[in-house]
Write a structure and sequence with these properties.
Helix content of chain A is 0%, strand content 50%. Chain A is mainly β and 115 residues long. In chain B, 0% of the residues lie in helices and 56% in strands. The chains are: A mainly beta (115), B mainly beta (113).
């Protein structure tokens, strides 16, 4: 079955450490996204990529970095510069259409706890 | 930038009662999308509305897109415990190579059996 795989489901890190969250999709989607979810805050966009080797900052990119070396993969690194990294991180993908208005398919998410 | 506002933030109902969540955008939207997130799960796409005044139904769920394409609603008739979750609306920003979705903060629905 096609889908988006995020790993691990739960991740624990010490403050000051960088951590990379994995996101892989086999849907052959061009576009991929990273969202952060905090209680009562909805989904906030961190980074997104419409094509390999290209990505754009979202609304809350500070303290995060991404790469898009392969169509299938869009890893997110949470750096030590991110002030409040503890959150639920969701990766998503979509077909790139001419109008750019296709729905998102989400992975199961990674819950990151930094202490 | 574009903002998408959703009300109410929480709604608790008795099983069998109806439920409505409302979504308002600060700008005109080309389309609006609705997602459902079950507790502990991830958002799942429900529907996309494109036309002004459009109404779509999925069993007990009715989705509407306003005439001005700046607001939308989701109405659930006779709620069931399986309806529990957070309902999000989302509107697109940009287009082409700069396409992204802005989500509302969601409405958490709980249903008392």
């Amino acid at each position: 079955d096609g889908g988006i795989t995020q790993s691990p489901k739960y991740l624990f890190r010490k403050e000051g450490q960088n951590v990379t969250l994995s996101c892989e999709q086999n849907l052959n989607h061009d576009a991929m996204y990273w969202y952060r979810q905090d209680p009562g805050q909805g989904l906030r966009l961190i980074y997104y990529s419409q094509i390999v080797n290209d990505f754009q900052k979202g609304d809350i990119a500070e303290g995060y970095s991404v790469s898009r070396e392969k169509k299938e993969s869009f890893p997110l690194t949470v750096t030590s510069a991110q002030k409040n990294p503890t959150a639920f991180y969701l990766c998503a993908s979509s077909i790139k259409r001419g109008t750019g208005e296709s729905p998102l398919h989400f992975g199961n998410g990674t819950r990151l706890t930094v202490t | 930038g574009q903002q998408v506002m959703q009300i109410p933030q929480y709604q608790h109902v008795q099983e069998g009662e109806d439920f409505t969540t409302y979504c308002n955008s600060s700008t005109t939207l080309s389309n609006i999308q609705w997602y459902k997130q079950r507790p502990g799960g991830h958002p799942v796409f429900l529907i996309q509305l494109v036309k002004s005044g459009e109404v779509k139904k999925q069993k007990r769920l009715t989705f509407q897109f306003g005439e001005a394409k700046k607001n939308s609603s989701l109405h659930i008739t006779a709620t069931q415990t399986t309806d529990v979750g957070t309902y999000f609306c989302a509107g697109p920003q940009g287009g082409g190579s700069n396409y992204k979705l802005t989500f509302g903060k969601g409405t958490l629905l709980t249903v008392n059996p």
